[in-house]
Amino acid sequence: MPSLALQKPIKQNLEFKTFSFRHACSAEKSGQYLPPQREIVMLLHWLTPARAAMLAVPVLVSSFAASQASAHGPTRQKVEESVTVNATPDKVWAVIGNFHDMSWNPAVASVTGDGGNKVTSLRTLTLKASGKPITESLDKYDATEHLYKTFLTKPNPDALPANDLSTELSVSPAAGGKSTVEWNAAFYRGYMNNDPPPNLNDEASKKAVADYMKAGLAALKAKFGG
Q1: d(C-alpha 91, C-alpha 174), whole Å
Q2: In sequence order, what are the residues at sequence separation of 6 or more whose Cβ sits closer than 8 angstroms to the Cβ of residue 129?
């Protein structure tokens, strides 16, 4: 039989355990003060294994998301370039509107292909910087709207570090009888798995595509002025 000196602490401990978390919420609303020790005991009493598991789920999800973000695969990149030149859209289109003629872009050494400006036509571009080829298909062609779209059907990271490259080249009227040439691209980096080498990561791929497009637009600016 416990002594009287021990009975009181035992009784208090039982009181703490039976004082539920719901009572704590009620006490808080009524403005009653709860000693920190009692709050801890009440929380431990309320935190059953099932509730602990429920609280752990968001933490696990957050940790998983963080780990995925740190080792994610490639994400779609975009490059948008434009230039305004001192020529009408028709004059500019006469230079850039032939799918098989890329002589206006100094970044391209040569072009081969067939099918003219018919959708699904193919062209193979040999790029000057690398001497390597890439092959594109013509996905849309509209001479009236002065635009065409391409898709990279045979990527070659040694030539241009990009995969699934889609582009749109267009000419639109600008103030003063000028034209705005827009060249937009969307693509994945040159290395499609995790942990890409520096020359095939997002930044390197984006720069390579942008440099290729800027070279062509700068040449148009030099040709027509603006």
Answers
A1: 13
A2: 107
Sequence ranges of the domains in the chain: 4-70, 77-224
Q: pLDDT (tens digit, 0 to 9) for every residue of the chain, 226 residues total?
A: 544 444 444 444 444 444 444 444 444 444 544 455 555 555 565 666 666 566 554 544 454 444 443 356 899 999 999 999 999 999 999 999 999 999 999 999 999 999 999 999 999 999 999 999 999 999 999 999 999 999 999 999 999 999 999 999 999 999 999 999 999 999 999 999 999 999 999 999 999 999 999 999 999 999 999 8
Cα three-residue angle 129-135-138, rounded to 5 degrees: 125
* CATH code for the part of the protein at 77-224: 3.30.530.20
Question: Rounded to whole angstroms, how far apart are CA atoms 123 and 221?
Answer: 25
Q: Which helix (H) or strand (E) holds 183?
A: strand 178-189
Q: Looking at residue 76, what DSSP letter applies?
A: -
At 47 the three-state DSSP class reads coil
Q: Are 195 and 85 in contact (CB under 8 A)?
A: no
DSSP SS3 for 152: strand
